[in-house]
């Protein structure tokens, strides 16, 4: 029997990260070696600084449960990515993602999504603790200011995870909750409105941005928050606030927030190619990213997602739903009779971001081409390790680094950066908000861009070079164009899950069957492509616009914490 804990996770950190208890008997009064003492943090500037930087990954020394509490912000490079909870992909070897795809989400049945509430509040408490002792730490005034901005950014990011997954947040302010506090205090569990939640976080980000440096430099480790990171998070949150699901802000405010990042004149579209962007540490497009080193590598993507014919495990396999949405390279959808789409050669002449994102039958990969066909295809069920054959007919290409070994990768792979914010997202945020507030071709005050010209900057990226959007589009047509750009430009970057919800179209997109393809090699060497359902029972209900708060958290609050409707 698994015992239920009776203390909220944002309080339990007292016992998990900080050593705050003492024993009466000298025999038992020893310093724990698996945690950091408050004395060390509060008396040693190096330990304090390490404590702050470790808040980026939510790391605690005592994390042996494998509960997903250690990956950093969001999910990032895990075996099953957030994309496999959407119409982008399915996880080939189910690890509870299928139950969410099938609408079986419940407060006690959350899979990898179940850690977000507790993990976020644990980190918020840690940030509050670090902020509470910062005034007495012997740093220079300028360094204290940076650390304060950094901690407020991290705390805001954790609140973002609460807001975008659960809606209304419990706003803790600067309070450091301890086990000695009255844990039945209703204020500990009162959820603010969505508007109150977002307004609070936006104010914190404004404060953080005023304190953070514009650049990482010799005194500010690469990968730590900057002014641009704080403003980028504000841009995302204000865009969400104006969206139909939230209805807690204005599109004009979202335009202003995105423009603040653009006006830094620090970021641009990476000219080294769309595919290389996700393999390269530190580019002019990257605003905030997590960097990995030899001793801190992440999931080894190549074997986790590679084709079975290479010994890979298939992992996050793209859906036909996504494949069909890629335009032809002339900018026309494949259902347009004048597009040039050929169903016997379905992957020819597509938006170049398609081949950079999806491995398809015939795609060049390492020493040969992908063989997802039957009979006889090496990357089909007729190949080796056929239990790892893709269920959709596709494999993931984005993020895969062919220079890394696919076999025995441990210690020699898993060093791609995970990008949290990049300039293309900011342009997309600006375009969406500007179109909704002013229309496709109006240049807002203080900007040099319209919604249309912002999108064209992305479409004209070197290695993509899709046709520019023409002038004269209606607001509705531009809305569709912007949603297309977000769909393909940001694929597998943890945006689709939140986009279809904030637009309130998830009841359409997430109720479509999870599509795949059966590829048959004919006697004359041609291929026949037959649609199939790759995962049956896909289902989305109205309550799924928000995640349920884990049952254990509701119980720990004594029932004071209000569950989301429908659960």
TrEMBL record:
<dbReference type="Pfam" id="PF07980">
    <property type="entry name" value="SusD_RagB"/>
</dbReference>
<dbReference type="InterPro" id="IPR012944">
    <property type="entry name" value="SusD_RagB_dom"/>
</dbReference>
<dbReference type="InterPro" id="IPR033985">
    <property type="entry name" value="SusD-like_N"/>
</dbReference>
<keyword id="KW-0472">Membrane</keyword>
<keyword id="KW-0998">Cell outer membrane</keyword>
<comment type="similarity">
    <text>Belongs to the SusD family.</text>
</comment>
<dbReference type="GO" id="GO:0009279">
    <property type="term" value="C:cell outer membrane"/>
</dbReference>
<keyword id="KW-0732">Signal</keyword>
<feature type="domain" description="RagB/SusD">
    <location>
        <begin position="297"/>
        <end position="567"/>
    </location>
</feature>
<dbReference type="InterPro" id="IPR011990">
    <property type="entry name" value="TPR-like_helical_dom_sf"/>
</dbReference>
<dbReference type="Pfam" id="PF14322">
    <property type="entry name" value="SusD-like_3"/>
</dbReference>
<feature type="domain" description="SusD-like N-terminal">
    <location>
        <begin position="109"/>
        <end position="239"/>
    </location>
</feature>
<protein>
    <submittedName>
        <fullName>RagB/SusD family nutrient uptake outer membrane protein</fullName>
    </submittedName>
</protein>
């Amino acid at each position: 029997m698994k015992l239920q804990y009776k203390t909220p996770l944002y309080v339990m950190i007292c016992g998990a990260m900080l050593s705050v208890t003492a024993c009466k008997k000298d025999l038992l009064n020893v310093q724990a070696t698996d945690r950091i003492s408050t004395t060390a943090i509060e008396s040693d500037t190096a330990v304090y600084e390490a404590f702050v930087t470790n808040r980026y990954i939510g790391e605690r020394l005592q994390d042996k449960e494998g509960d997903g509490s250690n990956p950093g912000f969001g999910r990032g490079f895990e075996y099953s990515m957030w994309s496999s909870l959407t119409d982008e992909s399915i996880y080939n070897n189910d690890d509870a993602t299928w139950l969410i795809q099938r609408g079986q989400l419940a407060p006690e049945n959350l899979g990898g999504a179940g850690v977000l509430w507790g993990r976020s509040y644990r980190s918020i408490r840690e940030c509050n603790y670090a902020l509470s002792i910062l005034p007495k730490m012997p740093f220079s005034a300028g360094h204290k200011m940076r650390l304060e901005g950094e901690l407020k950014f991290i705390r805001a990011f954790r609140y973002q995870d609460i807001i975008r997954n659960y809606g209304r947040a419990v706003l803790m302010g600067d309070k450091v909750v301890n086990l000695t506090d009255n844990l039945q205090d209703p204020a500990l569990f009162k959820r603010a409105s969505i508007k109150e939640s977002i307004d609070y976080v936006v104010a914190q980000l404004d404060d953080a941005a005023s304190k953070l440096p514009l650049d990482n430099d010799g005194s500010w480790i690469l990968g730590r928050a900057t002014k641009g990171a704080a403003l980028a998070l504000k841009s995302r949150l204000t865009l969400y606030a104006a969206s139909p699901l939230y209805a807690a802000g204005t599109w004009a405010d979202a335009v202003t927030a995105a423009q603040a990042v653009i006006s830094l004149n620090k970021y641009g579209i990476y000219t080294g190619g769309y595919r290389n962007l996700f393999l390269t540490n530190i580019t002019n497009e990257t605003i905030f990213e997590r960097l990995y080193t030899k001793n801190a590598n992440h999931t080894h993507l190549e074997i986790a997602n590679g084709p079975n014919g290479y010994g890979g495990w298939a992992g996050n396999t793209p859906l036909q739903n996504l494949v069909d949405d890629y335009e032809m390279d002339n900018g026309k959808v494949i259902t347009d009779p004048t597009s040039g789409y050929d169903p016997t050669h379905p992957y020819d002449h597509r938006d170049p971001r398609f081949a950079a994102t999806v491995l398809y039958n015939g795609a060049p990969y390492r020493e040969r081409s992908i063989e997802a066909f039957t009979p006889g295809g090496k990357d089909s069920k007729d190949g080796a390790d056929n239990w790892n054959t893709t269920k959709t007919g596709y494999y993931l290409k984005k993020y895969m680094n062919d220079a890394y070994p696919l076999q025995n990768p441990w210690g020699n792979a898993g060093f791609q950066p995970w990008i949290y914010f990049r300039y293309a997202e900011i342009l997309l945020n600006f375009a969406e908000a500007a179109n909704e507030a002013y229309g496709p071709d109006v240049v807002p005050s203080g900007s040099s861009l319209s919604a249309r010209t912002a999108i064209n900057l992305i479409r004209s990226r070197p290695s993509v070079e899709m046709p520019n959007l023409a002038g004269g589009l209606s607001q509705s047509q531009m809305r569709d164009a912007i949603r297309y750009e977000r769909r393909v430009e940001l694929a597998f970057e943890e945006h689709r899950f939140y986009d279809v919800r904030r637009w309130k179209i998830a009841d359409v997109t997430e109720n479509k069957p999870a599509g795949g393809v059966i590829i048959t090699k004919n006697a004359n060497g041609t291929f026949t492509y037959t649609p199939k359902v790759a995962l049956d029972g896909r289902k989305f209900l109205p309550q799924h616009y928000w995640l349920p708060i884990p049952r254990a958290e509701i119980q720990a609050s004594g029932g004071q914490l209000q569950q989301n409707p429908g659960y």
